[in-house]
Amino acid sequence: MTSPIPILSLQCGKAGPFRGSDEPSAIGKAPVTGPVEVRRLGLVGDEQADLAVHGGPDKAIHHYPFWRDRIGDHPLLDEYGAFGENVATHGLTEDTVCIGDRYRFGTATVEVSQGRQPCWKLDHRFGGLAVSAAMVKARRAGWYYRVLEEGKALAGDDMTLLERPHPQWTIARTFGLLIAGDHRRDRDALETLGELDVLAEPWKARRAKLLGGA
């Protein structure tokens, strides 16, 4: 079992106009102080603008391990929340976190449900930098949790791994198959992924679509 990982920051954001775009967005998240209630649909005080592709029980909380090595210096990186994430930590990565991992998160319990699929809004937020492409290439786009047990969390609390039922299905491997094109050379893995009941419904649908087009 891994050592507890400190929560560096928790971020929330409200939906509003997205700079230079006709679409609203809640990608601009800012650190919050004090305890935050963790509910089935996410952190109290956080919003998603487009509920067709964001939010819901399978994507209640977005976690992104803080990094700047592939982007370089940018003012947005001076604060946590630059990528629209709700949770920032050091010590957890897409190579070590697995689908189905369960964590004690403050007093709540959360379960890793899927990786994040980056979109154009990240590039737009960073002034036209190719952030999404860099994420796909590096397999570093973060991941989502579903909330199994509601509670409260606070920056400075620990995240403690409770269970890892699927150690072979890291976020990086799953992301590679479903988003980064690895399914073209590993159809067997794509088929085996169907045995993973804890995989979020959007990624189950993505897998079925890729199998149908293979």
Automatic annotation (TrEMBL):
PANTHER family for this protein: PROTEIN YIIM
Per the UniProt record, the source organism is Novosphingobium malaysiense
Top-level lineage group = Bacteria
Q: Which Gene3D superfamilies match?
A: PK beta-barrel domain-like
Coiled-coil stretches, from where to where?
A: none
The record places domain MOSC at: 30-162
GO molecular function (one): molybdenum ion binding
What protein am I looking at?
Answer: Molybdenum cofactor biosysynthesis protein
